[in-house]
Amino acid sequence: MKRQFALLLAFLLLMTAFAAAEAAAPTPLITEDVPQWLTGIPPQEKLTGIRCGDFEYLPMQDGSAQIIAYHGKEKSLTLPAELDGCPVTAVGARAFTGSSKLTDVTLPEGILSLGDAAFSGCRKLTAVTLPQSLARLGENPFVNCPRLEAFLLSPDHPVLELRDGLLLNKAEQKLVCCPLTLQSDACTVPEGIRTIGSDAFAWSSLPRIEIPASVTDIDESAFYACQELTAIVVDEKNPAYVSDENGVLFNKDKTTLICFPDGKTGTYDIPDSVTSIGD
Fold it and tell me: Among residues 248, 247, 255, 246, which one has the least CA distance to residue 273?
């Protein structure tokens, strides 16, 4: 009897300890779903995080923090260098999506990565300052920011480069972002670029985009929602892609129709060689 009583008492004490630990733990927050029309990127799984002021973050295994959501209403914002004593080293996918008040943002030194569509749909954002430490960029962190006109970064940045208004990842030879404020009769992707990233030109009002021979990888959503685009013109020496006289983009042997520009009107006869049509 005494043995049974002792076991019961031990069980009750253990359950009490578990309950106390659960009550003491920070309450996780759940990020809201982001509508796909805002980014062009499919929704991601919800993340939980810890609230610190206006920011929500995930603690990482190395003791650093990744910002995953922002709940403030600042217009001019410098991201914190640390949260709850954890150095901030990353901004997660869609962390600032739809922050309607932001006009300019500064990422401090120490931030190493910027996730997919991190600032997507920030419709008043005009300027972003990027630090020397920034080494990894996800797919267009600034998709659908219609007023964004200035990326501020050092000309000797080890990874990033501005050329003709385009944000490039020179380490990966990748075009990351064409700002929506870029106005021209035609935009020429710089020679040497190998990849045009996801949503790189999304929502752009450019009527013509010219692709050099060096480009061998174009993401299927690179020209998402380009409603004024009427022609994609590929250098004839390009080994991976070709365009026809109508400005329609194909793979080199014309078996896949990759992109029919959204701004084209009228009828179009798909070539007999086409066996598949891209998304």
Answer: 255
Closest of 81, 36, 85, 93 to residue 63, by C-alpha: 85
d(CA 166, CA 27): 41
Give CA–CA dist 168/47, Å, rounded. Answer: 29
Q: Which residue has the tokens 């962390």?
A: 95
Residues in the chain: 279
User: Cα–Cα distance between 1 and 9 in angstroms, integer?
Assistant: 12
Nearest to 49 by CA among 71, 66, 24, 72: 66
Q: What share of the chain is helix, strand, coil (3-state, %, to 5)?
A: 10, 30, 60
Which segments of the chain does DSSP mark as H helices, in order?
A: 2-24, 36-39
pLDDT in tens, the chain (279 residues): 444 444 444 444 444 444 433 333 333 333 344 444 444 444 555 567 999 999 999 999 999 999 999 999 999 999 999 999 999 999 999 999 999 999 999 999 999 999 999 999 999 999 999 999 999 999 999 999 999 999 999 999 999 999 999 999 999 999 999 999 999 999 999 999 999 999 999 999 999 999 999 999 999 999 999 999 999 999 999 999 999 999 999 999 999 999 999 999 999 999 999 999 987
pTM: 0.83
Asked if residues 142 and 108 have their Cβ atoms less than 8 Å apart, the reply is: no
Backbone angles phi, psi at 5, to 5 degrees: -65, -40
- Alpha-carbon span 203 to 226, nearest angstrom: 5
125 HSE (CA, 13 A, CB side): 30
Neighbours of 3 (CB within 10 A): 7
Q: How far is CA 229 from CA 86, 123, 224, 226, 245, in A?
A: 45, 21, 10, 5, 15
151 close to 167: Cβ distance less than 8 angstroms = yes
